[in-house]
Specification:
By secondary structure, this protein is mainly β. Helix content is 0%, strand content 47%. Strand 5 and strand 6 form a beta hairpin.
């Protein structure tokens, strides 16, 4: 069973940095491709970043390229999202998600963590 828990969201000023963390507190030792998504008030949930199960392949939304970095530490079952040069438009609830091998979509989601960027 996969149980994802995000942390690290808070209020930050524009231009600042935050690191979000996502832990899998489930019992499985299997590693999965992981992603970060976000949803701003009144908007659809959108893709932010993804990382392969081994960590060697990453992908980013154009809006965050060069500012955000996704990484993982499989030994401690953690996935991170380092966010630099934050902008007001980055304000959203951020979710991490896990994708089962062979799945075309994300299968497990965390409860989200709020990031608010003040201008």
């Amino acid at each position: 069973q996969v149980t994802l828990v995000e942390s690290g969201g808070r209020l930050v000023q524009a231009g600042g940095s935050l690191r979000l963390s996502c832990t899998d507190s489930g019992r499985t030792s299997t590693t999965y491709p992981m992603g970060w998504f976000r949803q701003a008030p009144g908007k659809e949930r959108e893709f932010v970043a993804a990382i392969s199960s081994g960590g060697g392949i990453t992908d980013y939304a154009d809006s965050v390229k060069g500012r955000f970095t996704i990484s993982r530490d499989n030994f401690v079952k953690m996935v991170y999202l380092q966010m630099n040069n934050l902008k007001s438009e980055d304000t959203a609830v951020y979710y991490c998600a896990a994708r089962l091998m062979g799945s075309s979509d994300y299968d497990y989601w965390g409860q989200g963590t709020q990031v608010t960027v003040s201008s």
